[in-house]
Specification:
Strand content: 15-25%
Distance between the termini: 92 Å
Structural class: alpha+beta
Number of domains: 3
Order of helices and strands: HHEHEEHHEEHHEEEEEHEHHHHHHH
CATH superfamily of the largest domain: Multidrug efflux transporter AcrB transmembrane domain
Number of helices: 15
Number of strands: 11
């Protein structure tokens, strides 16, 4: 759904939700295009808020999750409260009497193999017809597999299964999700008004008087938590990217100091990316952070070109100031043209043209803004930083020589006239 100009996304979602509430029973979830794109990118499947009920017994988890669902349904800042997974279909639960099995000297694995082979079948052989290979499955006929009496009369080492198992009807879960090796049933909800943090605070208040059964743990998370984890991972990726760039530059320039001059373009580009995101209204999210990480490897190119040319001129005998001025004249056009072509390539993505624009636009805007400011400021900041670095290096070298002389180290000088 594309909104008319001037329509707020939150207002449109609220109006749609009020109308969709009149539909017959079912689950309706409304998401913005950007939220859906971010979820696909991060692999997140939860809503704005999710209460995760963790434990081992699925019946207990579902019972407690339904209690949580009823409490959250009364929170005005939340809407579309529902269980994250259905309760599944009716099933027959087979429980092995381990004491009886041990008395007969039968392992539980033997019982499961007999039940599995009889109900699901085993591959006895393969039927080959020219270039086709068909597995031959041997199992009980359909009518026998529908009867519990048939199951009870199966034998393991001539012992009928009715002596070894008990059966009961139950409801099996549609899926079993695990977090940190523990089973989880999630109660999901969307934020109706206010921010996610306010909604989480309201949810905590509603559940404050709820008694948690033994062995059950309740945590509140959701999309907001997924994004925080993504931000943490992307911040680490950004630091690693800068470190790798530094190592490559140190090897290229054979210096531990010169790479810092080049890496000055990274904060310059980051400032431009944040300003561009603020002006465009895209905001700082997981997708735009990926763009900033990409920037760390792109914006250095212009500075590398300029610093490398300065070093070439110095090897030819130019002074520091002469080399900087000559590099400014010789490398101005290549640097600007290189950046302009990159920005023009990002322009269609930044303007959100075509399918998938919700995912592409924040990334493109971040890279576009970073390239713009990094190119403009690198032409000025990098030469100034290079000159300051050389002055500090010469001053440090002079102090070192002075200290050696003060310590009594005598250097031989040519005597005039010799």
């Amino acid at each position: 759904v594309r909104l008319r100009k001037g329509t707020r996304t939150a207002d449109a979602i609220e109006r749609l939700r009020r109308r969709l509430n009149d539909l017959p029973s079912g689950t309706v979830s409304l998401e913005t295009g950007q939220a859906t794109a971010v979820n696909k990118l991060l692999g997140a499947g939860e809503s704005d808020l999710a209460v995760r009920v963790q434990g081992e017994n699925m019946d207990t988890l579902f019972a407690h999750a339904r209690s949580v669902e009823r409490l959250l349904a009364g929170v005005t800042s939340l809407s579309n409260v529902r269980l994250g997974s259905g309760e599944g279909q009716p099933e027959i639960l087979v429980e092995i009497n381990r004491e009886r099995a041990a008395a007969y000297g039968i392992e539980p694995s033997e019982i499961t193999k007999v039940v599995d082979a009889s109900m699901r079948g085993v591959s006895a052989t393969d039927y080959i017809d020219f270039d086709r290979k068909v597995a031959v499955i041997v199992r009980l006929p359909e009518s026998a597999r529908q009867s519990l009496e048939t199951l009870r009369e199966l034998r393991v080492r001539d012992v009928p299964l009715r002596e070894l198992i008990t059966t009961r009807e139950g409801i099996g879960p549609a899926e079993i999700r695990r977090v940190d090796q523990r089973r989880v049933v999630a109660v999901q909800a969307d934020v109706a008004r206010g921010g996610v943090d306010d909604a989480i605070s309201d949810a905590r208040g509603a559940m404050r008087g709820l008694t948690t059964p033994a062995g059950v743990q309740v945590e509140i998370g959701g999309e907001n938590e997924e994004l925080r984890l993504a931000f943490r991972a992307l911040a680490l990726a950004f630091a690693l990217a800068v470190l790798l760039v530094y190592m490559i530059l140190a090897a290229e320039f054979e210096s531990l100091v010169l790479p810092f001059v080049v890496l000055l373009s990274v904060p310059l580009g980051t400032i431009g990316a944040i300003v561009a995101l603020w002006i465009s209204g895209a905001g700082l999210n997981a997708v735009s952070l990926i763009g900033i990480v990409v920037l760390a490897g792109i914006v250095d190119n212009d500075a590398v070109v300029k610093v490398d040319f300065i070093n070439q001129m110095r090897r030819k005998g130019r002074s520091v100031r002469e080399a900087i001025v000559e590099a400014g004249h010789a490398r101005f056009r290549p640097i600007v043209i290189n950046s302009i072509t990159a920005m023009l390539g990002l322009l269609p993505m930044a303007l959100a043209l075509g399918p998938g624009a919700e995912l592409q636009a924040p990334l493109a805007i971040a890279v576009f803004g970073g390239l713009f400011t990094a190119t403009a400021l690198t032409l000025v900041v990098v030469p100034v930083a290079y000159d300051l670095m050389e002055e500090m290096r010469e001053r440090a070298a002079g102090n070192f020589v002075g200290q050696r002389r003060g310590a009594g180290v005598v250097t031989a000088e040519p005597v005039p006239g010799d």
